[in-house]
User: What shape does this take?
Amino acid sequence: MVNRRAPTEVLSADQVEAIHGASLRLLRDTGMRVLEPAARGRLQRAGCTVTDDRVRFDPDMVVETIATAPSAFTLRARNPAHDLTVGGDHVIFAAVGGPAFCSDLDRGRRPGTFAEQCDYLRLIQALGIIHQEGGGPFEAMDLPPETRHLDLLAALTRLIDKNWQGIALGRERASDSIDIAAIALGTDRDGLAARPAVLAIVNTNSPLSLDIPMAEGLTELAAANQAVCVTPFTLAGAMAPATLGGALVLQNAEVLAGVVLTQLVRRGAPVVYGSFTSNVDMRSGSPAFGTPEYTKAAQAGGQLARRYRLPYRSSNTTTANAVDAQAAYESQMSLWGAVAGGANLVNHAAGWLEGGLTASFEKLVIDAEMLQMMAEYLQPIVTDDDALGLEAIDAVGPGGHFFGSPHTMTRYEKAFYSPLVSDWRNFETWADDGAIDAAHRANRIWKQLLAEYEQPPLDPAIDEQLTEFVDRRTIELR
Assistant: This one.
């Protein structure tokens, strides 16, 4: 998708520069803990000061190094029609990734299984408004933890032909993501480096820490010229200053440190500025999402990313425990912050529930409807073939109606939006059908989508190579 609307700017130009300057001072004077020895050594050779595991950054080096990162790049998909442009005015909606649990109205909240994980992937394939899979919708708890990522990556290759996110949790998982992406695309690591396909999320441990698994994943991906999205988890009032400005300084400093490391590993490696700043409930300390603070931080994060000419990531979030009104209004607040803030990647765009602990089957469908509405909002009001609707008015005439006119049909056929769960019938018709709410309609829809799912074709030779790789790596990891 393309967003040609001017982004909302909640910070003045002077405030953006103040956050930039404070971030550089923070990295220079306080520094960042980098727990992985090889990453510390790389930073030290680039001119950083290293004391134990603390790395202090020279501001000039930071500015010069991040300037080598590309402002946009392309990610390949198994189906070339689903290739993604990351950056500029492009917008990607990625499905939820990473929760521990799954849920639906029939079985409730529970640890997920591999079979359920595969069903979720089938739904992601079926929903056209979702452009990218998010790196595993939830954990398959019936599989061994040391090898379950291999089963996920194989399922991603077989069940969807869209682009999917890799796994950055440690060197081995990142490496396996790269190798399986190469197999899926019928190429090798050199071919993948020339035309990247993998993007993975690397989370810093706020405040000011980068742990060993994340540093290993970042290094492995950047060395292979695959994309890294550096995303701090900065909650104002918990692991970040209580003020939103202070939290943005911390977020910005951690992103800059991560971007520097990617460029020291491989100059020009694709990287995304990730924003995940929100606040906590000051009465309980619980994370809060979809709040006004989250929305403003998402918009401010976009301004900072554009300051460095980097693609920008935000998210669709909610702390709601059920697929209810709270889930909808918090998600809508998050989406407005992301899209109006100029996000190129909206992570967790569909399916996120319970502060990220749960991937919901019904929420996936309801979010897809909101995304379709957002996509239609991004379309221009007046187009070259629109003629301002005057021809349609003339054609309909006094006392006529627009439904069925060529003008109306053309606009509808071009629209992204097609209702999934909205119920626009009159009260009597709705009541006769059981008076079901949006969540129950979504329950019907995801089951219908599963029943109608068609697996995209895969070259038998690629399927065989994939099986051999997964079998070999499973033996090695066990």
Remarks:
- The chain has one domain: 1-379+415-478.
- Residues 408-416 have pLDDT under 50 and may be disordered.
- The chain has 17 helices and 21 strands.
